[in-house]
Write a structure and sequence with these properties.
Layout: H1 5-21, E1 26-27, H2 31-38, E2 44-50, H3 54-67, E3 76-81, H4 86-93, E4 105-110, E5 113-118, H5 120-124, H6 128-142
Helix pairs in contact: 2-4, 3-6
Amino acid sequence: MSMSFEAYMRDMVQPMRDELTRIGVTELRTPEEVSEALDNMKGTALIVVNSVCGCAAGQCRPGVAKALQHEVKPDHLYTVFAGQDKEATAKAREYFAPYPPSSPSIALMKDGQLVHFIQRHQVEDRSAEMIANDLIGAFETYCK
């Protein structure tokens, strides 16, 4: 029995998707879903650009999970998956200007405006705890 590459990758990344969705983060899988969620958005939204890389597994997703345990958090929680949902990720990145494409990365938006952004290089060299503290500081500033 042969398995297609797409099916193999879908099976491989599902646990990485689940790591965020099980804590209440909504996946945006198409450009239309991204536009629907972010165009004319009111309130605050966290958008995680998920990835299969080691720093996403070791620092980014655990840091987001820890930050979301804080009493102050964004109104909306979203994720796109780089390399898997390519069109949705490209659409989400349009909202993150002037930052270049980066995965993993984490954006915080307020009333449709980007107010805080953590790029890949800020994930790679920091612990999940440091990322969580960075996000909690941004939540305290923008989500009250």
